[in-house]
Amino acid sequence: MKPLRILMIGDIVGRPGRTVIHEKLSFLKRKYEIDFTIANGENAAGGNGITEKVAQDLFISGIDFMTTGNHIWDNKDVFNFIDSEERIIRPANYPASPGKGYQIARIGQNCKIGILNISGRTFMPPLDCPFRTADKIINEIAKETKIIVVDFHAEATSEKIAMGWYLDGRASLVVGTHTHVQTADERILENGTAYITDIGMTGPINSVIGVEKDKVLYKFLTQMPVRFEVAGGPSEINGVVADIDKNTGRALRIQRIKE
Amino acid sequence: MKPLRILMIGDIVGRPGRTVIHEKLSFLKRKYEIDFTIANGENAAGGNGITEKVAQDLFISGIDFMTTGNHIWDNKDVFNFIDSEERIIRPANYPASPGKGYQIARIGQNCKIGILNISGRTFMPPLDCPFRTADKIINEIAKETKIIVVDFHAEATSEKIAMGWYLDGRASLVVGTHTHVQTADERILENGTAYITDIGMTGPINSVIGVEKDKVLYKFLTQMPVRFEVAGGPSEINGVVADIDKNTGRALRIQRIKE
Amino acid sequence: MKPLRILMIGDIVGRPGRTVIHEKLSFLKRKYEIDFTIANGENAAGGNGITEKVAQDLFISGIDFMTTGNHIWDNKDVFNFIDSEERIIRPANYPASPGKGYQIARIGQNCKIGILNISGRTFMPPLDCPFRTADKIINEIAKETKIIVVDFHAEATSEKIAMGWYLDGRASLVVGTHTHVQTADERILENGTAYITDIGMTGPINSVIGVEKDKVLYKFLTQMPVRFEVAGGPSEINGVVADIDKNTGRALRIQRIKE
Amino acid sequence: MKPLRILMIGDIVGRPGRTVIHEKLSFLKRKYEIDFTIANGENAAGGNGITEKVAQDLFISGIDFMTTGNHIWDNKDVFNFIDSEERIIRPANYPASPGKGYQIARIGQNCKIGILNISGRTFMPPLDCPFRTADKIINEIAKETKIIVVDFHAEATSEKIAMGWYLDGRASLVVGTHTHVQTADERILENGTAYITDIGMTGPINSVIGVEKDKVLYKFLTQMPVRFEVAGGPSEINGVVADIDKNTGRALRIQRIKE
Ligand SMILES: [Fe+2]
Ligand SMILES: [Fe+2]
Ligand SMILES: [Fe+2]
Ligand SMILES: [Fe+2]
Ligand SMILES: [Fe+2]
Ligand SMILES: [Fe+2]
Ligand SMILES: [Fe+2]
Ligand SMILES: [Fe+2]
């Protein structure tokens, strides 16, 4: 049986990020023969949060499902649709918030995929334990499908790699997001889980993680408040393509995308 | 004139890291025709700090110069030789500490290279401003040579990328260290500085940033104190090779190494 | 019926802290006609952690019960007795650790007191939610007694005051510990809970929260590692005396102690 | 010669804080026979920052001088007057910002007072070293007057007490602000500097450091974004009264105020 090929795209940042998705996603999906496309959308609306309009627009551009992260609540419009839009999840370890932390989606007639979003706690707000949350939800999802993708939205490399090992053999693909810089450590772990510390972002390359560089430098040099603005110029899509064995849920291949 | 080819190696972690240096460095230097080899040695002694014995051993293995980072002071032996060993520097923005934050080294008869080590402050201790420190020292070094390598030992991707842009056109090569995970964003910035957010580590691959994974998972799951131990198993060298134009100090090429 | 009078003593720091307890506690208990004495013992052994010997010694000096905090695990001897010593508790929101987070103790024949220890998370490690933990345990304790004392070991004033309001009317006394500086905001909250943000420490007054001041200044000025040592010189006991109505569990009075 | 009597008032929070100043300050100044009144105004406008209108209003109410802190930049109106209003200072260790970090004010014909504002760095943004900044500026002020008041706006008790000892004998009065909770450790240090870790806030007492308690509890329980609002209900003024020997600059007395 042909493996399932998943494209997982890093944090889409503002209009430049959305534009490069509009322009290149169809082409990429054909080029890599993608079966299912997930993207992190926490920065899709002006760099902070996501609106219903932006979300629908991205779904129309070919994204099948969206994960998010700490910026999910930045644009208040999210509260209008997070509970009804089944194709968007937020970190599962928020102790009490609208929306869902995981979802099981259909791919074609016979295939189901579980998608789980979790947030780290190192250098981040103290949500519920990401490891226990992942443990519990993956046991839940495993009752329905072996194909499980985890977006671990976290800062520290140690916490992300630890999660990779923790879920090794239980998830098909564990990707990190949040740092907006793609790492070069993609691999299949010992028990068959494809892993990468961060898939990077989708947005302007001449920037500081998507933001206009002068604004960020001013911040670091003065420690004064500054309104961050999404940078202009050329953008690229960062992400990974992973092949999953439909029978076992194990990963067969993981490849970085940067184009 | 042939460009200068520099090999910059990521944090060498404990005995496994040193062993892979002993076994592979000579070969790598020949393979890539390296002119000068720098390594970050902050974790060289048992994962924490560096001793004189370990340092000399690494120099004998073919490393020409060492930068360090926040772990430099972990092994008290460092205080015995940091002031006399001219081939090791510590972050320049410690406000009052032994050792030096930069050094100008000779490569052959006619070539001088300035090496600068700085530490970030985001999610790290509040040292002096890394940007102002870099600014001042690079002006100093520039009086003697145009070939300048900066090891920015920092956690946050935003701070590291901001430093890259800040020094663009003034340094030949700016590499990040500290996260122990190599990033895939190596490039030549707009004004000729070669940049990468993190060059990764040199040590055991089946680990959490060099540490035995069970210990780290225990820590994350319990928040209890635990003695971290350097992991065993296969190791690899992570780093970058950069070509620098000797006349202009500009970078011509940057390539990731992971072997 | 005469109210129950509780003496709650702030973090006992090292030998100086233990000595002032030996010297003054009996006198204080007589002077204030104390029925039950609780102390925070997380720094009792050399400033870091607690040993069985130190603990027994403090019980002999007249302390009836001990709470602790983030330093509880610093001295490894604690693992030898934390599970058997019913008079010592550790923060209840450690997700998986030895020892207990609360205890119900007897005072005389007819009176039971529930003592709960929790740790904050602001500027501290990400344990389980302190508010949910408190909620759950207080419901448990309330089945057996209305007299409930909470030691909330936390850094941020906002988190501590929030806990006071959260437990107002459900606990008899909520005291903060950890900052080692007594606050002047003791009061009875609107629904009858006695509250103070921090009861201070028991140890050397010419120090920085118990530590030799030169060591701490060296640390702040250099950001270099330094071995903290408990300071010498005169010590004082910091704490509060609270009167609890035995029938309702409500606080009638709270008074700061500094002597 | 009669000592100089200074009233130093803690962070004035929003309208409730300003109202209690209007209502009680004149009375307090007469009651305590105050010569000079300083207040921390970083939260004076709606809880965040300060506007010109609010500032002038507070000066009219009897405040002679204002210090601030990390919230100084929250209301953008501050940029319109911070450079021209000589009676307001901001933390001196901002590396590059408008306004001044210290000022020398006149009290009557013959008396000058130096006022210095510094921010801590523990659990706060990485400004320049507060200790070196204080050192340098106090040497500057000392050329003109021996009467020196320092507002150290900081979070950690250790950093604040360390600053007290660091300036002992060089400043007349060192007060902490920022935690909004008054501490009970006021004293004259060994070399004559009056010190207190925090003077508390001026604002609504049934609140969490000035903010409506339900909002803060919602934040702690959910980790969701929430718009903080200044609480209502009764307010009080927190601060200290200190007597300074005009000839030596040494403190003779320090007394907490809470009314
Ligand atoms: Fe993001
Ligand atoms: Fe994020
Ligand atoms: Fe390292
Ligand atoms: Fe490091
Ligand atoms: Fe303590
Ligand atoms: Fe503590
Ligand atoms: Fe404030
Ligand atoms: Fe503040």
From TrEMBL, chains A, B, C, D:
Signal sequence: where? none
Cofactor(s) in the UniProt record: Fe(3+)
Report the sequence similarity comment from the record.
Belongs to the YmdB-like family.
Domain of life, per lineage: Bacteria
Protein name from the UniProt record: TIGR00282 family metallophosphoesterase
Residues noted as binding Fe cation 1 in the record, renumbered to the chain: D11, E42, N43, H180
Query: Where in this chain does the entry annotate a coiled-coil region?
Result: none
InterPro entries the record matches: Metallo-depent_PP-like (IPR029052), YmdB-like (IPR005235)
Q: Which Pfam families match?
A: YmdB
Q: Quick check: keyword Metal-binding in the entry?
A: yes
Q: Does the record bear Ribosomal protein in its keywords?
A: no
What are the entry keywords? Hydrolase, Iron, Metal-binding
